[in-house]
């Protein structure tokens, strides 16, 4: 008779069920013990190492793309009752130590969801999810660009304030210094800003300046839609304006002088 239990095979070919998987963590068998039979100390893993050290090892392994060490550290934390700590840290490492935009963030989130919501975090399946997440992070391109950006932008703002107080020029340029109409970032002052409205900049300015993308430019279908849309407006655009609206931004000149462009017409 089918009792509804799901049977699978473990890594060594052993038969596993939902019932055996749920009891992997021995949650009702008394105090947690290490590999030598001694009761676990505070913040101690089953190998006899402080969990903060294992967590630090995990982070360094992710940064250095050491898959085996990262996988072991994940397994050690989870099997020792620190699954909550592992998932908290591995998500931090995704944003602190990996290149922006990599799909590993979604991969880690999915493994965490499986471990926490479908299965038990410290079960056999939960341990596999942790190992998978650690491997995915270790295999992703490493970079501390966000952390470096946070440090630099903070110090840049402090330097700007200090220079103003001391009556000198800042050692590095700050975007705010040119964030005004007619400055380097003139294109941002369209009808969506107070300054742009004051200057009488309407949707035409946005379409021919603020809405441009780069460096690849718009895909062909998007180009067609933009040009057709502009031709259907009440305003008559020149051919130069239509071309500029879909022209890619030069990667070497991301903020062209909009006033100079207008004067050329």
UniProtKB/TrEMBL annotation:
GO terms for biological process: DNA replication. The keyword Transmembrane does not apply. Keywords: Plasmid. It comes from the Archaea. Residues 1-44, 163-184, 242-265 are annotated as: Disordered. Residues 20-42 have a biased composition (Acidic residues). Residues 251-265 have a biased composition (Basic and acidic residues). GO terms for molecular function: DNA binding. This is Uncharacterized protein. It comes from Haloterrigena turkmenica (strain ATCC 51198 / DSM 5511 / JCM 9101 / NCIMB 13204 / VKM B-1734 / 4k) (Halococcus turkmenicus).
């Amino acid at each position: 008779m089918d009792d509804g239990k799901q049977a699978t095979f473990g890594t060594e070919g052993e038969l596993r069920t939902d019932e055996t998987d749920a009891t992997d963590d021995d949650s009702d068998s008394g105090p947690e013990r290490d590999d030598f039979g001694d009761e676990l100390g505070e913040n101690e893993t089953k190998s006899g190492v402080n969990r903060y050290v294992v967590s630090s090892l995990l982070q360094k392994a992710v940064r250095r793309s050491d898959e085996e060490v990262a996988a072991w550290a994940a397994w050690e934390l989870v099997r020792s009752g620190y699954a909550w700590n592992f998932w908290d840290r591995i998500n931090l490492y995704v944003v602190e130590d990996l290149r922006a935009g990599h799909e590993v963030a979604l991969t880690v989130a999915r493994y965490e969801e499986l471990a926490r919501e479908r299965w038990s975090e410290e079960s056999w399946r939960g341990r596999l999810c942790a190992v998978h997440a650690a491997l995915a992070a270790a295999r992703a391109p490493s970079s501390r660009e966000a952390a470096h950006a946070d440090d630099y932008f903070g110090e840049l703002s402090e330097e700007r304030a200090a220079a103003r107080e001391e009556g000198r020029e800042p050692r590095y340029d700050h975007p705010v210094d040119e964030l005004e109409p007619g400055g380097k970032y003139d294109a941002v002052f369209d009808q969506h800003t107070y300054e742009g409205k004051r200057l009488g900049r309407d949707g035409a300015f946005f379409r021919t300046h603020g809405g441009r993308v780069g460096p690849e430019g718009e895909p062909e279908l998007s180009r067609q839609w933009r040009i057709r849309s502009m031709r259907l407006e009440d305003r008559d655009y020149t051919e130069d304006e239509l071309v500029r609206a879909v022209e890619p931004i030069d990667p070497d000149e991301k903020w062209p002088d909009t006033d100079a462009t207008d004067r050329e017409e």
